[in-house]
Every structure is written in structure tokens, then in C-alpha cells.
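Propose amino acids for all 584 sites.
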């Protein structure tokens, strides 16, 4: 148990003892007290899946929203933990989030194939320059080509996701799994330079070039492996090049951890003789997305949320030029301070980072509220779900108004918004985006990779990556296994100047550091560039050639604005009959 501000009080009731035992197993702790909360002990959103699965095995049920709300163990045991009356151990919950939609029944898809999710289809349609991720890892083991090939072949057979391709001509478009294919592996002939800066430059150039080598979406595999030899015999570099439509970031780290673990065992003479198939949860996740998409209650919820977001904010993302990106790290003191502040506020680090980002944007915006697209995961609750590979992501808009005063109030407001939306969290962003009239000007992604790496001393380190989305501005924070390190990255799809991403990065880092030094981040310090008002509230005509459509607004959005402004005015007239905007 880590050193916490509250003293240790042992569990007293059988319910508290059962929950404490699960937390100890999942978080690898010697003891858990009744006044502890999950975040203070090192929990995160992925680890909640292990908790819920372990509780199901014990015939206990705990609402996910309560676990994520930062309640203490005693509060959860008294108010939230209940016996499982209607499900047997190991049975699948009806919704990936664990919170069922009562008006729609999820229908699981038989076999490995499943209808492609709207997010997958959107990524495939975005263009070849988007969503082709290329990551390089330094493997601290000697390169033995035959052994590496054997491991990559076995891992490819184990994970259906690595054999997935897309049949977009089918109705509905399908994600299909090839029965048995070899991995696409290249042993790069020329060794890397010995000098670190030359080696890093060579790998960066390789990633840039590989990112331009497109995939055939209708043919598996949609992942390629490249082994780069070094002048010495003790290590090598492994590059994973894949389409984001099959793997999210957490899954890619889980994959490299599994590859290096099996490769290390094989070199040591301890190969795994038989590798059991990994859980294939994408069909189940796709069913949850479809159930949410067909839910009238989910549609109503997001319609109201989108109206609120549009009414409160008309800010546009910084833009006007070429793609720009900037990356940096937070120092250990800032990271530790953020963790302590998150523990004090009884929230996860992710919520605190999002609260500070939202407050900073709002401080430089003329609007009364800020809407940030928050990237979430919907990995189903199941045994060994954290071993499954796939794309379990969604984006939900979180709107916080200027009535929040101080980081603590921003945290509370975000927690309320997430609690309200959690039941409908699988509703596809492609549909939400249409309701919003476009992407939110800023998006936020936080990933904690610690739980993805099982070995205490993993044989690999990240050595660079290339990724590009079509989101206007994406602020990403990655927390590695070394919890003293956080990487922050800002990517702007269309930056107004080459150094705009650097400016946004510097402003956000300064605000985070200020939040650690004082209860309030310095509102005038800097910061994210002021958002410009959206250009032209015009409607796209039915004829003619349209060039720049960034300022155009969908018709239904304009109608709803009229509903807010003059609900009783005449909207449509035909002879003596008419309909008001409210009626329309």
C-alpha cells in the first residue's frame, strides 16, 4: 500500500473484505484500507475492467460509474456493491460499458467477423495520410531472425485482430478475420548507425517513409513488422506499422509487450509450446456500439448535449495551414504534484488533466462554455479482457461552462458530465459529430500504459512514433510504466503557423506546472491560442461548386438556433397553413 494522507483502517465487514481482496489482487498491493479510493492506490480505467471481472467471478456486481467516481472502499461496499442475482459468473454483461441500455437489446455477432464500427469506417475513409500509425521500440535482446519470425507467427495466429481486413462493399460493411496468414515481416538489411543522433534520425526517416506506404484495407494483414539490426549484437529495434482501424494505442503496447515477453522466453530456451487463442472482443464491442446507436434514449441524450454545446460555444480551432505537431515531457516533480492533487480531489489523473485543459481554453475564449472531445475506451468487461487487441475507442463531447470556478469545480463538473453520459458512452462519435455540426475544436486523449505491460522489467523502450489524425487539435497525454514520466503531445491538422503546436504545448505544460504550485492554474499565463469565432453562418447551397466548407453550418443546426431565438416565429408557410420553428 502506498503512503497516503489517511491512516490505514482494516476492512471490517465481509463486503469490505471481498472488495479489498479484489483491489489487492488487481493493484498488486499487500493491503487496502476502508478509507482508500481506487485512484489513490494506482487504479485507472483499464484496471477497472479487471476489478469488475473479478467481482463477477465472486457473484458480486459494482456499477462502473460508482467505481470511477472516486468513492472510498467503505462507501462502495455500503452503497454500491450488490450480489449478482440475474447473471452467472463469467457471463457477458449486456453493454461494453457495463451499464445496459434498457430500450435496446444487444445482439452478439457469431463467429470472428463483425460489422465494422462507425469509427473504423471513418478512419478508413479519412484518407491514406491519416490513421497510419508507425511505432518503433528498442528491444534489449539480441536479434535472432528465425526466433523472431516464429514469435510473430504465433502471435498473429493468437490474435484475430492481427488478421482482420475490411469488406467495405458488403451490406453492412464488415470487418472480417482471415483464417490463417503469415505475418508481414521485413528484416531491414542495412544496420542502423552507431551514433545515437544518427540512429534516431534514420529511424524517424524510416517511419515517415513507411507512413506513406498505404495499406489495402481489403486484404489482411493490416500490420507490418520491421526489424532493424544494430552494430552490436545485444539489441535491435522493432517497428510496428499498422492501420489505426484495427488497433488502439493501448492494444499496440500490449502487443509489443507480448512479443518481447515471448521472444525473451524463446531465447532463454523456454518457448511456450501451445499458445491459447486470445479473447476476441471486437464482435462484442461492435454489438454494444450498434445497440447504443439504435437506442432512442441515447439519441435523445446526445441531441440535447449537442444543442447545449452548440448554444454555448462557437469557437473554432486554431487553423489555416499545414499539419503541425510538438511533443514534450513533464518533469517528475510536476507529475508527482498532479498525482497528489488528483488524490486530494478524489479523481483520476485523467480527469485533472482534462479539467486544467478545459479551464485554460475557456480562459482565452469569448464563449460561456468549452466543449472538448474526450477520447474514451469501451473495452468490454470479460475475463482477460485486457489481453484482447482491437479498437475499443470512442469520443464523447464534454461541455463545461464558465460557472465553474477553480480546478476543483472543473473536476466536479467534468465528473458530473461523464456520469450523465456513461450509460450512453458507446453511442458512435460519427453520429454525435453530425449532431454537433462538426468536430469540437479541441480533443483530449489520456492513456496510461502501465497496466498494458505485465513484466516488471520489460525488454523494450519506446523509440519514437508517427501518427496523424484528422481531428482539428488533439492534445494527448501518455503515462508510461515509469509513473514519473508523462509525455504530452499536441497535433494540429491545419496549423496557422509552423510553431503553433509548440506554442500550445508550452502553454499547456506551463499551466500544468502552475496547477501543482498553486491551487489555481494561472489564467493569464499563456496558454492555448485564443479561439477565433467561426467564419460565416452560411448554408451549403444545392447547386454550384463549393471550395472551403469549414465555415458552413448544417441546416438542422441553423433551425435549432432559430428555435432558441424565436420559437414562435413562422418557419414554413404553404398557403394558409404554417409551422413555427418550435413546431418544426
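Proposal:
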Amino acid at each position: 500500500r502506498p503512503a497516503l494522507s489517511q491512516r490505514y483502517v482494516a476492512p471490517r465487514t465481509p463486503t469490505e473484505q471481498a472488495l479489498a481482496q479484489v483491489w489487492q489482487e488487481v493493484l498488486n498491493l499487500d493491503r487496502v484500507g476502508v478509507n482508500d479510493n481506487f485512484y489513490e492506490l494506482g487504479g485507472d480505467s483499464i484496471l477497472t475492467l479487471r476489478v469488475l471481472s473479478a467481482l463477477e467471478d465472486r457473484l458480486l456486481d459494482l456499477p462502473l460509474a460508482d467505481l470511477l467516481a472516486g468513492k472510498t472502499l467503505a462507501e462502495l461496499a455500503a452503497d454500491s456493491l450488490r450480489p449478482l442475482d440475474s447473471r452467472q459468473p463469467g457471463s457477458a454483461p449486456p453493454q461494453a460499458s457495463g451499464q445496459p441500455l434498457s430500450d435496446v437489446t444487444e445482439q452478439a455477432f457469431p463467429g470472428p467477423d463483425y460489422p465494422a464500427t462507425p469509427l473504423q469506417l471513418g478512419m478508413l475513409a479519412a484518407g491514406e495520410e491519416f490513421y497510419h500509425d508507425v511505432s518503433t521500440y528498442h528491444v534489449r535482446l539480441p536479434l535472432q531472425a528465425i526466433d523472431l519470425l516464429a514469435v510473430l507467427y504465433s502471435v498473429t495466429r493468437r490474435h484475430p485482430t492481427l488478421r482482420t481486413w475490411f469488406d467495405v462493399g458488403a451490406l453492412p460493411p464488415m470487418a472480417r478475420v482471415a483464417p490463417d496468414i503469415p505475418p508481414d515481416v521485413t528484416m531491414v538489411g542495412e544496420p542502423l548507425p552507431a551514433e545515437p543522433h544518427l540512429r534516431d534520425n534514420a529511424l524517424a526517416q524510416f517511419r515517415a517513409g513507411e507512413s506513406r506506404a498505404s495499406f489495402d484495407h481489403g486484404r489482411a494483414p493490416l500490420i507490418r513488422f520491421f526489424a532493424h539490426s544494430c552494430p552490436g549484437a545485444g539489441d535491435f529495434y522493432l517497428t510496428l506499422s499498422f492501420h489505426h482501424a484495427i488497433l488502439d494505442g493501448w492494444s499496440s503496447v500490449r502487443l509489443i509487450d507480448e512479443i518481447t515477453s515471448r521472444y525473451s522466453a524463446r531465447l532463454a530456451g523456454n518457448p511456450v509450446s501451445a499458445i491459447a487463442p486470445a479473447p476476441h472482443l471486437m464482435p462484442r464491442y461492435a454489438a454494444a456500439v450498434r445497440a447504443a446507436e439504435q437506442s432512442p434514449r441515447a439519441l435523445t441524450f446526445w441531441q440535447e448535449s449537442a444543442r447545449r454545446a452548440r448554444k454555448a460555444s462557437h469557437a473554432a480551432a486554431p487553423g489555416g495551414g499545414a499539419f503541425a505537431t510538438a511533443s514534450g515531457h513533464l518533469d517528475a516533480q510536476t507529475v508527482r504534484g498532479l498525482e497528489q492533487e488528483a488524490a486530494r480531489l478524489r479523481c483520476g489523473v485523467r480527469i485533472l488533466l482534462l479539467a486544467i485543459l478545459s479551464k485554460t481554453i475557456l480562459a482565452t475564449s469569448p464563449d460561456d462554455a468549452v466543449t472538448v472531445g474526450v477520447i474514451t475506451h469501451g473495452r468490454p468487461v470479460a475475463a482477460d479482457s485486457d489481453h484482447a487487441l482491437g479498437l475499443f475507442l470512442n469520443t464523447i463531447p464534454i461541455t463545461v461552462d464558465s460557472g465553474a470556478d477553480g480546478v476543483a469545480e472543473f473536476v466536479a463538473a467534468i465528473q458530473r458530465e461523464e456520469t450523465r453520459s456513461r450509460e450512453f458512452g458507446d453511442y458512435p462519435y460519427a453520429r454525435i459529430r453530425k449532431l454537433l455540426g462538426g468536430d469540437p475544436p479541441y480533443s483530449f486523449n489520456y492513456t496510461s500504459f502501465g497496466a498494458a505491460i505485465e513484466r516488471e522489467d520489460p525488454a523494450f523502450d519506446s523509440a519514437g512514433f508517427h501518427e496523424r489524425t484528422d481531428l482539428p487539435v488533439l492534445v494527448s497525454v501518455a503515462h508510461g510504466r515509469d509513473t514519473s514520466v508523462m509525455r504530452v503531445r499536441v497535433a494540429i491538422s491545419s496549423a496557422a503557423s509552423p510553431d503553433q503546436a509548440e506554442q500550445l504545448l508550452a502553454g499547456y505544460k506551463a499551466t500544468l506546472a502552475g496547477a501543482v504550485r498553486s491551487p489555481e492554474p494561472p489564467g493569464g499565463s499563456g496558454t492555448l491560442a485564443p479561439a477565433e469565432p467561426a467564419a460565416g453562418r452560411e448554408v451549403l447551397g444545392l447547386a454550384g461548386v463549393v471550395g472551403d466548407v469549414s465555415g458552413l453550418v448544417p441546416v438542422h443546426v441553423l433551425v435549432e438556433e432559430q428555435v432558441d431565438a424565436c420559437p414562435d416565429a413562422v418557419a414554413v408557410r404553404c398557403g394558409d397553413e404554417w409551422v413555427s420553428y418550435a413546431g418544426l
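The radius of gyration is 25 Å. The chain is about 35% helix and 20% strand.
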